[in-house]
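Write out this protein's structure.
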Amino acid sequence: MEQKCVIPVMFKEVYSKIRFGNERWNQLNASNDLLYKFDANSTYIKSPPYFDQMTPTLPKIKSIVNARVLLNLGDSVTTDHISPAGSIARNSPAAKYLIEKGIAPSAFNSYGSRSIFDASEVYRREGTPLIILSGKDYGCGSSRDWAAKGPYLLGVRAVIAES
């Protein structure tokens, strides 16, 4: 059945035109640079800092000494809980930051509820590494990479989970 319905010429026709777009697409003003140039003043898209110190060779694994537990979680903390998906409360630190940048509350959009951000910043300033303790199924969901990237940005150096 697949042989009759999925015909290679269909793909060739569609993908032969993919670089040409349509009239509206072709009118977009875009850079030809290979890398995206992040706007340092943007309140919407920021350069992810986990690439700032990246080198071609892996750094040596260091012991985690005198760490503090940032989160002690139960079972089934999914990526929906971890990822930046919830509404930004108008009285949150994120809201204060955006208001200081001249952003109207109607344009806040969303983020993962993280009242823990303030605590992680205190530990970051002190140079204290952080860990997460979790039950079963930590980080399950569609954005599993965020279960590592988000906490890493908060200073978490290890997650100890039951599964």
